[in-house]
Amino acid sequence: MKIAIVNCLKANGVCTGAACLEAMNRRTKSFAAYEDRDVQLCAFMRCSGCGNMVETDEGMAEKMERLLSMKPDAVHFGKCTEKDGQLCETLRSLKEKLERAGISIVMGTH
Q1: Which residues form the CGGC domain (predicted)?
Q2: Tens-place pLDDT, residues 58-73
């Protein structure tokens, strides 16, 4: 099973990705559903910042194209992507595009 993780660029100042990867490797938190499965992390990406939409930002469009080419079974949106239970416009748009491509979305990592 291939999975990817998407994180918020704003978290970059304090995030090493270690907690997400630890939860995935130990199959805890939102990765517990994969306890008995072989999982391959095919991508760990950050958005390109608020307002940098897939439709208008070359970098985000390239990231999306690359992510889709990896054909992940699921994409986990990191704990950092939600503020008060909401995604920003950029991440909400990314999530919707992934869902339209038939990719399962899981909210949360660690």
Answers
A1: 2-110
A2: 999 999 999 999 999 9
Say which amino acid occupies 11.
A
pTM (2 d.p.): 0.95
Q: Helix 58-69 crosses helix 89-100 at what angle (to 10 degrees)?
A: 30
**What's the CA gap between 69 and 78, in Å, rounded?**
21
Polymer length of the chain: 110
Instruction: Report which of 28, 32, 60, 33 is spatially closest to residue 45, judged by C-alpha positions.
Output: 60
Helix ranges restricted to H, 11-57: 18-26
Give residue-wise pLDDT tens across range 86-110.
Answer: 999 999 999 999 999 999 999 999 9
Q: Which fold has domain 2-107?
A: Rossmann fold (3.40.50)
Confidence of residue 9 (pLDDT cuts 50, 70, 90): very high
| H/E stretch holding 99 | helix 89-100
Q: Which of 29, 57, 39 is nearest to 1 (CA)?
A: 39
The tokens of 63 are what?
Answer: 């990231």
